[in-house]
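DATA SHEET
Item: assembly model
Revision: 1
Owner: S.N.
Input lines:
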Amino acid sequence: MPEDKILPLDKMFHPKSIAVVGASSSTKEIGWVKRLLDFGYKGEIYPINPKVKEIQGLKAYATICDVPAPIDYAILNVPARSTLQALRDCVAKGVKFVHCYTAGFGEDGSEEGKRLESEMTKMISGRRTRLLGPNCMGIYCPESGMTFSEDFPKAEGRIAVVSQSGAEASRLVLLCRDVNLYFSKVISYGNAADLDAPDFLEYLAQDKQTDIIALYVEGVKNGSTFMSAVRKCRAKKPVIILRAGTTENGARAALYHTASVTWSQETWKGVFKQTGAIPALTTDETADIIQGLTRIRKIFGQRVAIIGRGGGIGVVATDICERAGLKVPPFSQETQAKLREIKPDAGAGLRNPVEPKMGMEGATEFYLRGLPIIDADSETDIILIQMAVDIYGGGDADLRQTLTESAYALCAAADSIKKPVAVAIFTGGRPETVLAAAAARDILTKAGIAVFSGVESAARAIARIPITKS
Amino acid sequence: MPEDKILPLDKMFHPKSIAVVGASSSTKEIGWVKRLLDFGYKGEIYPINPKVKEIQGLKAYATICDVPAPIDYAILNVPARSTLQALRDCVAKGVKFVHCYTAGFGEDGSEEGKRLESEMTKMISGRRTRLLGPNCMGIYCPESGMTFSEDFPKAEGRIAVVSQSGAEASRLVLLCRDVNLYFSKVISYGNAADLDAPDFLEYLAQDKQTDIIALYVEGVKNGSTFMSAVRKCRAKKPVIILRAGTTENGARAALYHTASVTWSQETWKGVFKQTGAIPALTTDETADIIQGLTRIRKIFGQRVAIIGRGGGIGVVATDICERAGLKVPPFSQETQAKLREIKPDAGAGLRNPVEPKMGMEGATEFYLRGLPIIDADSETDIILIQMAVDIYGGGDADLRQTLTESAYALCAAADSIKKPVAVAIFTGGRPETVLAAAAARDILTKAGIAVFSGVESAARAIARIPITKS
């Protein structure tokens, strides 16, 4: 059985040759050809542009039919009115996948746009050529060197994104990059005139490079196909769905974005119940859940031990966790007694939340001596460490050094205990504080510890991690 | 009528003399005496410490009774077991306000702590001396040079905070400072053994330096007194209440933080309904609402025009606004026609949300040409500008320059239109992007434009601004 039949979309992520129809001859802008070259795509690139002989040192062809070699993947970067001819040429040439970057089709709101889009669908019907888009950014696959943004990391990871929006996909990739999380395959698929979410899900369910799948969906064309594809994925790996256009005017905006007819919040509720997919409402939340799934992994319950900043900040953190569906119960008497031994200060902070000695120095010491005690506590399942660096007093050099030491101490401590550890670093907006915190975040995330931008983010991500039965 | 009778708490914010009982003689730590000196307190400071002759160049006294001058305000920084004697001395000396910084009283959970606290209350009953605390940080009043943190700004502003938690008050002060918002008076009052929220509200309702009041409350001792004080304030200025300890374990944490018995979420619902106070659940939300009230001021309706990043990001932004209770309706046909004239690109983005030309450069041009068109739109009340700098492509020097230019263009444009303008700058976690955005935020906020850290923050703040009847 040829490889194509096993994973029919494989050539879309690993094409041996790419034609760019309407390749830009500008030397100022970064066009598709230069982007692929810069990003390290190793296959053949064929610029198609009848007006020039060469683009980025590569021979240019007048039409795709002039290329004297087979083409696996073509990017259409021509005006909407010229796409039909370009697509016709691709079909004639036997191109396997056509990515139509161009916008101005069904989402345009005009009759002409709708007509063009339905013509495209008709044109490939029953042919070997499959269409990605129109009105989309296409593929990012660091393994093969394909990308739609020069800002994306070249590092490979194990997260896949299936998104109707290129901008939302980009935001997700960059948010994850900021916490050292990387991707296997990202697909921006726009109006879905041919290839649609279920096709990508089918592939990603089987993809050995992918552990987690995140979807950004505005509209679903065939509900039962979609549901069955999500269920098939869910049997093998977690699926997060960011559904957009669930409000009155959100739905209107989606209609003019990807010509999608959206589902209501109620319908989606049913989908999540029936498929076991994880719901998300914003991109940041999606990134937080991805991090939770990747780095916290197994939790055996939702009882949280909060370490760091007691007082009012601890009370508010407790409220936030409990509102998110988690529990912050008091530690066992045994745990409290052991904590009292290492922390004889007056005042609150032994019961949960626990307050290490004031300041970050106290925190560092506590990670080493206190974490093993809380690890043994019978009443809690996961440890959430709150670094409230926004109200840290002291100089900036001091803050950076203390935070760095603290982060290394925490890595060592977390490594030697059994319970999962998550960190919430709230910085506020002061640049110096943000920079110091970013350095600590980098140390922690590289050691595989989940770092969130606050207790709200951490709590909503933890609440979405499926509970492992012990 | 003596001044004291008009505003009896005035001397608490503007004492002519402060005694620090248990003044630290350490030269390493920043104690209360050094903090007051550094912050610019201009009155007399009397360190009380029987073991040394001098602290920070000031003569030290063995007891407060030895000070040969009247004392308006005393800070008790002695162990819990010594506070009764110290307070007795203060009462004998006729000190007007005693701030008991020391913790280890009712919140301690022990019988001894409760007994000590009730002894303190008894000791001042019927006397001229009033007690602030115990277990609290006291007063921050930049006008008089009083502070409980050396990190607080010396700049004066028009916001007052009444908080049972010193850490929450600090977080709020610093979050507001990050967007150039400053304070008139901040009170951290802890266990409220004597002076309580209603006393401060009574004062702040009349305070000519204060426009907005934010409360952090764990427990209310006398419900009807509290409600009546909030109502009295509300008649004159907005009151925001961040209520903590409203969940099961949040309530438990509050009990051990300030010995407070908290109200349920249901009870609070009634309070907000009856008083017209504005509810908040986290410190960031409180800071966002403060900024909304200060900088957006009058809105005549809740219909939002969203500018910047259409596509999926616009769809999600629309959903976020509508879920927060706002509306994002389509612009009038007239507005859409006028926008089409200045923005002839294909694709979506003329209807609301509106997408300026790709990239930040397009945004800058749009602020100048498009904002007046949207200002005249009949369907929207407030303009929300989304700067999605997290997915900006291009170099960092470029980003900083473009963002700065964009910010100045927006200041000019916003100044010449009638509708209120709010900005959401979402950065992600990349340090370079955060720094560039911080510079733009500084320009905008100094020009009086509200800047939020994302559409979620902006939407929840806008939704809390009372609608002005036109």
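QC remark: Residues 1-6 of chain A have pLDDT under 50 and may be disordered.
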